[in-house]
Amino acid sequence: MDIYLYNTLTRTKDLFKPLDEKEVRMYSCGPTVYKDATIGNMRTNIFQDVLRRILKYNGYKIKHVMNITDVGHLVSDGDEGEDKMIKSAREEHKTPLEIAEHYTKLFFDDLKALNIETPEIICKATDYIPEMLEYVKELVEKGYAYEASTAIYFDISKLDKYPVLSNLNIEEQKAGARVEVDKEKKNPYDFALWIKAPENHLMKWDSPWGPSYPGWHIECSAMSRKHLGEQFDIHTGGIDLVPTHHENEIAQSKGVCGKIPANYWIHGEYLLIDGGKMSKSLGNVYLLKDIEEKGYDPLVYRLLCYTCSYRNKLNFTWEGIESTSKSLARLRNGYQQNKAGKDALNEEDRKELDRLETEFHKAINDDMNMPLAMSYVWEVIKYNKKSPEIANLLLKFDTVLGIKIDKEEKNEIKIPEEVLELVEKRKKARQEKNWTESDRLRDEIQNLGYSVKDTKDGVDILKN
Ligand code: AMP
Ligand code: ZN
After folding, report:
1. Considering its fold, how many domains does the chain have in total?
2. Could you tell me if residue 11 is inside a domain?
3. Within 10 Å of residue 115's Cβ, how many Cβ atoms?
4. Same domain assignment for residues 287 and 157
5. Is the pLDDT of residue 339 over 80?
């Protein structure tokens, strides 16, 4: 069955045709490992995982590369500011290597909890310095780069077209000068390929231009070329990467070999929190562990991501998580009922189930339309007969969904530590007959989403 994917490069849903009939080559921009990954970052990883699973569902083998950025990503995403790794190392009184190891481990823990398949190749930027240097040298030799006092810059005026991926109007931007631009840049949108390191810089390598370090964009170009060749099929990332990082990866690739590196550029939209931005100042930066600490299976979040297209903004609320957790339980119970089901399926049932299977397949192949695909999953769950054959169909769907539909739901819920402490305090208050304090604690527990019921044996804690 044909697969269609919305391609940022063409701004249309394109028919997917891989360069090699059997194996899809795909590159995803991975995390910069300087801080905890948020559930927003994880939304991007979930959509990338769904894409790989859909390709596999359609019979393709996958060679998927994801990088780990442990140097060169500056605070601004462009050429301004400190390296994110070094800033974090300074703030946490650790070395950049310790920071990288710590956050890389946490990142992979989150992927595992979300049942995200590990890409075939994971590459850490600092392991590819020779490949990056080689790339920059080629660009200099071909006349696409020049040396300035602080960096080796890419000269965008040498390209036939820049930008190709985004709607940036660089003429307008030039006039408005979005940021303080290095006066040595020939064009305001020239960007650093290689950055000369100041005296006490923590991460630097020898190069023809003295001690220095790579720019963020060259990392992905060098690593993708190394593992996937000059041209491959799919390049993915979050929507924010379009105007700078991905635009510049394309520029580098065109400079070196005259080609756009990937045929399909797929971008995932942002996760919003209570309708707005997730930010430290608003105190609404959520990590996957916050969801787990409230007693939810992390896969509830994965299922929540299927409530809208990866190309639309998704709004996160705790109410949404609560109702999705009920949906996940219903899906899993539906699977178990079918596994134990004794109904015999006749010709007509099989025809209807085949239809639902085809509709599910069409939906996932239509630019990963997961809300539509889920509507067919629900039709199968609600089917008026229960049979192991239907359970098997649900397992087949789950190779794409990745929600562990065959996991047995335990009825007991994991009560967060915070709630347990309040219940304990309330018990004490009641023993001391301090009813005002006991009521106040009951309200506090209520606010955390739980209620207490006093019984003759103690208290029952219930999820609201
Ligand atoms: P950061 O480490 O915050 O710069 O994020 C790394 C990448 O994760 C970004 O480049 C985005 O592609 C993605 N990302 C960050 N925040 C969100 C969000 N709220 N929703 C979806 N993706 C996000
Ligand atoms: Zn990248």
Report:
1. 3
2. no
3. 18
4. no
5. yes
